Amino acid sequence: MCQKCKEKIHPKFKLANEHKIVHIKDIENKEVQVRNYENEIHFGDIKCTDHSDQTCCMYCKSCDKLVCVQCVIKTHKSHVFEEISSGYSFKRENLRKHTLTMKKQGEILTNEIEKLEKIQEDNKIQYEEVNEKIITHEKVVKDEIEKFAKSVKNGLDTKWDLIQVDTKREIDSVKERRMTIQERMKKAEDLMNIKDGNKFFKNIKDMEISLKEDNFGLLKFNNGSSKDAENPCTKIELKIGKEYLTTADTVDRVAHCKDGHIWICSNIGKSGILQKVKPTGNMLKEISSYEIIVYDMAVSKWNGILLCTNDNKIQGIDERIGRLRNLKLDLGIGILGYVIPTAICSREFLIVVGAINNDYPKHGKRVVIRMNEKGQNEHVFEYDTYGQPISNILFL
User: Fold this and answer.
1) Separation between Cα atoms, residue 50 and residue 44, nearest integer Å
2) Is the peptide bond before 361 cis (omega within 30 degrees of 0)?
3) Which of 69, 136, 299, 310 is most buried by its number of CB atoms within 10 A?
4) Using one digit for the tens of pLDDT, what is the confidence trace for 327-371?
5) What is the CATH number of domain 3-79?
6) Average pLDDT, rounded, for the chain
7) Mind telling me which PANTHER family this protein's record contains (predicted)?
8) Domain ranges of the chain
């Protein structure tokens, strides 16, 4: 530009005082070029995304994008414009603020990990101390106290396992969060160091979207505590809805059918009664009755009664002739040996059966059998999660 433009026209441009003016004779001077360009980003070669043959000349603040002359004339007539360098400075400053926030978050997460690891170490020390006391106590007591000590030790181990799992899960979660923030911070720092304006504006949108999606609010942690572990039991309150009178002396088991009928059984000594009844007023009207001892019963998905008797098979009632019949439910007798089903539960197509050895109370098998919708033996459980045999008597 000429001297007149330099003195009268150029100062009228916004941010003109930040421009650097070089004498035309010094343009070829490499020292001047390096000094002027090493700390500046040049925006003169950014192509317009809507008009590929045009170079962007302004930053549209209304649309948050770079525009060329054609954009200004056609679609951005009444919008607010700034120089490209202003748009760059604005976005770079936002990115810097987000980076500072992520850095603080990283420090918070690091401190939290240290707290959790300290909690884990303290829990481990407490576990070892209590465990040693239990072992010492176990050696000096007699048989009954020994059983009690083992029970306490198992409870402690279970609680310790839960604490370990919960704390480790929380540590892993915090570490994963910290890693995510570190990755975001690294990308932001790389983006701030880009000297190519075209590349900067191509990548800044994705970064801004990811920053909006991330939650940089106040982080909260449980510090290894577990409310569930403190209150493992749920209080259940049972209320009587309606009472019915029955001719049976006692009621040991009840099963409710989908059609409104009820099966009840009463076992007294070596005899038992199974009744199918229908609620009528406050009475249970007898529909049918069978002399049989029933250990447990359930209603199938098809509204049929499933009975555990003193037989080694699950039985049902053929109501047309009033007799027991064996059902096609595979207990896996060939594999398990001779066992007697003593408990049964039916939910939709799933049937679960508990069975014991036929010469109980002598030592023998105690198993839980899961069957599929076809009545096939799908899985047999003989030991609990601690590798201990299932209880002597199985009731579901």
Assistant:
1) 17
2) yes
3) 299
4) 877 676 655 667 888 889 988 878 898 888 777 766 777 888 888
5) 3.30.160.60
6) 80
7) BONUS, ISOFORM C-RELATED (PTHR25462), MEIOTIC P26, ISOFORM F (PTHR25462:SF296)
8) 3-79, 172-213, 253-393
